[in-house]
Amino acid sequence: MMESFRHIYVRLCKDHHIDPQDCVLEKLKSLEVGSKSKAVLDLSTNSLTPKTCCVLGKALASDRTFVEIKFADCMMAEDAIKGLAQGLAYNTFCKKLDLKGNNIHAAGTEAIGKMLRQNKSLVSLCLEWNGMGMLDNSFAVFCEGLGSNTVLRALDLRNNQISHDSVSELAAALKRNVHLRALDLRWNNCGLLGGRALLEMLQSNKTISRLELAGNNVPTDISKSIETAVQNNADRQVIIDENLKRTQTMSQHIRELEQDKKLQVNELLTSLDNQQEIHRKSQRFSTEKIGNLQLALEERKGAFNSLAAKLSMAETELALSEQKVNEYNSSLNRLKVEMQELAANHVTEMRKEKEDRANEELKYLKEISETQDKNMQLQNKVEDLERKCRQQQEQIYDLKEQVTHLQSELTMKGSQYEERITQEKLRQKEAMRDFEQYKQKEMIHMKQESEDMEKILRDRISKLESQRLDMEEEISRLKSTNVSDKLNAEEQLQTLRHRLKSEEEQRHVQLEEKIRVLQTSRDELQSLTNQQVATISQLQHKNSNLQMEVDNLRRQMEELNQELAQKNNYTMAEVGKVKAELNKLQNKLDQERSVQSEMREKLATVDSQMSEQMLKHRRQMEEKEKEVVLLEEKLKGRELELVRLREEEAQRVQVLQSAILNYVGKQGTSSR
């Protein structure tokens, strides 16, 4: 077989004026040298030209040698994929095909879809590491071919860049395909919409018993529901297989019984035929003897007187023959009576069987009525469960409204805090303006008096220098206190930032893991966190402005110290005034810091309240989700019980039909 395939390949290459590739010939020769039972054509990791692939496709179209064909990691062109697909569309022997890592997209995807529409033998198809989902139109053609296929059982589509639109096309095709058992969609881009489409498909498709969706960004709740649906399909398939096995065993048992009954009837018929043949032979023998005797009597009538003794002997022989005839007639009569008794017994047995079957039919009808009553009760229970589900959904909507109400309250509180901050800014600006005006007036007055007092102040420079040193020490001390306050404020801001970031990250992770269905509420919470970050940035901006003001005040202090070196006691009084003003400013700064701390504490309390409310809502949602999952499991169990009851009723009907057919067949044989 391998040698014939190689000759076909070489002949087709000559017909198309192509040189056969060495890698293909070496592989075919190695298969010929190896075990003949191995029917696997493995051309993986070989660079095959499009013409070679077209020739291989034509050779494989009528091939009945290879059960499995592998073209993995060959990186074939679109023309090569088309040639192989056109040939494999008419192959009726290959069961497994591996096209992994061949960069299949566009025209290659359409060719594979057309091949699936025509092929009637492929059971497993591997298309891993390709780009079939890059173009939606070509993937739609592939899905149409998959929907019309009735043989394929396993399909591998890992790493094919399949989007949610393509997944919806695939789900629509799988609604029509009720033969596929395993589907691998790992590492694609299904997303939320694709997961919903697959979940909707699984509600109608009950044959897929294995579905892989890792790495598709599918929400956890949808993936869990898909897993439960697939598990239900697997359980249903196991039940169907067991029922098929049972029906097969029952049909075999019924066939064996029919064969045994046929053999018994044939044995009875053969015994009757043998008895009839014996009776016919005895009749023929007696008739022949009677004829011979009559001939002898006719011949010996003339010599009756002379042969009286012989006549008496003949009479005795006739008497003996008549006795034998009587014996034969009595035996025939006995056989007839026995046949009549057998027929009567058979008729009575048939009547008993009819009565038993009528009783069984009545029992089956009663059981059917009971099952119908049970079905009505189950339907009522299902309606009650649906009402409970609706009530729970209404409770969920109420909880959502409460969440929105709380979020609106938070936004109102944030706006109130912002208004307070703007009022405080305006107050600080007005105070700074008044201080600058007063400073300008004092500077003008000081310049006028300094010109008059320059002569008197020269004598007191030495005293003022000592006082200047003391003032510098006090100023350095004030600077150190300001720097320490600044560092403490920065550390508090950093701790607040880290805490807020950590809390936001925790909230984000928890929301991503548990409340993906409530995406709208998550967006609103993110907007609230952004507002909080904005308020924090505003506070930071305020702190920077205050630091700038402190720096300006420091510069003013340095200028005043320089002027103190040239001025007298009046300047000392002015320095005292400046110190008082600085103390006032520091008091204002302390007040602003206290206000900021109060704002931070309020923000912390609001955050804690929000976290507690979110935890309560999450717990309530988790409890409701658990209740919904339990109700769904109960509904699925009831559906499985209904399916099982229907299948048992169908099996009982089939058994009744087979019994009635056997009964009719027995009546026909008995009438014959």
UniProtKB/TrEMBL annotation:
Q: Which Gene3D superfamilies match?
A: Ribonuclease Inhibitor
For this protein, the record's InterPro entries field holds: Centro_Cilium_Assembly, Leu-rich_rpt, LRR_dom_sf
* Keyword terms: Coiled coil, Cytoplasm, Cytoskeleton
Q: Which domain of life is it from?
A: Eukaryota
Q: Does the keyword Cytoplasm apply?
A: yes
* Coiled-coil spans in chain: 311-409, 447-648
The record ties this protein, via SMART domains, to:
LRR_RI
Compartments it resides in = Cytoplasm, Cytoskeleton, Microtubule organizing center, Centrosome
Q: Which GO terms describe its cellular component?
A: centrosome; plasma membrane
Principal subcellular localization: cytoplasm
Q: Which PANTHER family match?
A: LEUCINE-RICH REPEAT-CONTAINING PROTEIN 45 (PTHR23170:SF3), NY-REN-58 ANTIGEN (PTHR23170)
Q: What is this protein called?
A: Leucine-rich repeat-containing protein 45
Q: Which organism is it from?
A: Biomphalaria pfeifferi
